[in-house]
Amino acid sequence: MNMAKTWRPKYKGSTLYGAVACLTKHAGSARMAENKGLFVIRATGKSAHLINNPGFKPVIF
User: Fold this and answer.
1) Are strands 39-44 and 47-50 parallel, antiparallel or unpaired?
2) What does the alpha-carbon distance between residue 43 and residue 47 come to, in Å, rounded to a whole number?
3) From its phi and psi, is residue 52 left (phi > 0), alpha (psi between -120 and 50) or beta?
4) Residue 48: helix, strand or coil by DSSP?
5) Contact call for residues 22 and 40 (beta carbons, < 8 A)
6) Element housing 31 (H / E)
7) What span, in angstroms and rounded, lies between the C-alpha atoms of 13 and 30?
8) What are the residues whose beta carbons fall under 8 Å from the beta carbon of 19, sequence distance 6 or more?
9) pLDDT tens digit string along 12-60?
10) Helix (DSSP H) and strand (DSSP E) numbers for the chain
11) How far apart are CA 38 and CA 59, in angstroms?
12) Confidence check: pLDDT of 61 > 60
């Protein structure tokens, strides 16, 4: 992820966050992504929502 600003110079001065999208919440996958500082997005029908725990602090890339 640290290469994103190198590959896309227009984002050099931007704050970037990471996210993982999933269809179902598996026991460890959402927790692992959250522990890495990623937002976890769960698809719900024709919509989606964040399922991170309260107090979650995302990593800034």
Assistant:
1) antiparallel
2) 6
3) beta
4) strand
5) yes
6) helix 29-35
7) 29
8) 38, 39, 40, 41
9) 888 989 999 987 766 688 889 999 999 999 988 899 999 999 999 999 9
10) 2, 3
11) 7
12) yes
